[in-house]
Amino acid sequence: MSPGQEIDIGEIVLHHTSDAYSIDFEPFGSFTWSKWPDIHLGGYALNLTPTKHVVFMLVATGLAYLALGLAAAGLKKQQAGRKAPTGFAGFIEQLVLWIRDDIAIANIGKNGARYAPFLVALFFFVLMMNLIGLLPWGATATGNLAVTAALALMVFLVVEIGGAITMGPRAYLGTIFPHVDGVGGVGGILLTAFMAPIEVLSKFTKPFALAVRLFGNMVAGHFVILSLVGIILMFGSWVIGVPTALLLAAIMLLETLVAALQAYVFILLASTFIGLMQEPHH
Amino acid sequence: MTTTLGMLAILAEGEGGGGPFSVNPGLMLWTWLVFIAFLFFFRKTFWVTIVSRAEEREQTIAAQLTQAETMNAEARALLEEQKKATAEARGAAQTMLAEARAAAEKERALGHEKAKADQEALVDRARRDIAAEKDRAVAELRREAVDLALGAASKVIGQRLDGDQDRKIVLDYLATVERSH
Description:
Oligomer: heterodimer
Strand content of chain A: under 5%
Number of helices of chain B: 4
Radius of gyration of chain A: 23 Å
Mean pLDDT of chain B: 84
Radius of gyration of chain B: 66 Å
């Protein structure tokens, strides 16, 4: 931003939350790359150029992998098979076991342990993407609807495919065409036919809620933070700037909590949806 | 309303890769690709390390708990045996004590009876000795009396009366005197 330029809070918010083919390191400059050509699939054009959010997603994944790797190395070093580990390795181990026992097994049941690696990976993936946006020059990939929609769609597939495998095709079809106990004959068929669209809709509302909840929470926090930064820059006054900066610091702390909380809520809801599809409906 | 829609349109459009509300299929594919790769490598490497260590520890703790329960049961059994043995020993000691008391009582009674018998024997012997001494003293006295009587009588009659015949006369006389008394 050049001196004397008029402050546009909307532009600041849009610029920092939008995806792009560049990464800003203000005031040191920015790194920009060119867009790849589109891939044409029939009449549909798909572009696979890595965007800013892809880059930060890769960085977040690398950090998550590094954290888990350091924990695993720490567990090996501390001979955690014989005595309880301490420090960072112990913290990560407890986090992983908590997700396995208190989220996966508690919500899914006897098959919960099978889904635990998926939920643990999902938690660290989302958590790191949430947190990295709070760092200077960072961007939150989970503040992009495409990312949260992709994750929710994946959860949807895990829920439906996992449910179909566990329950069997007949019981799985029962989740779409429910049989209402005590209502038989033509009335029962009509009721099942009437319920089927609602059941199908309910299958899609769950991942939709999952995607929108995470996206909304992450993007709203960034909107607030960036708006407060915009206010400080716009007024350029100590009287406005100092209290706003204090408020900004408090919101940043709150956002750190929200980042962890939303990762937890995401996997909690995912495990609940998986658990709901592990037994036939009654 | 128009402003809000305009703002949403800008947010959806964004710059370059799209606004936060836009759904970029390329970004979705990247998300799946990155996450599946992360899940695959995490599942193959660190998941096994982290969970196997914890499970190994859980198994060790479970084995130690089982061992502790077994040892506790053994200790309880030993304690019961110990209590039983103590009770038996106490019973045996009580019996032995009672027997010892009975034996002591018996011994004491026997001793008492023996002492009493000894005492009575002593008393009898003393009585007999006293009676014998009395008889001897009476005989001695009687002999002295005879001697004196004979001495006196010899003086009176002027002759010596010391023959056995004389003595028998006096003794017969004394016997009559004793009978008259």
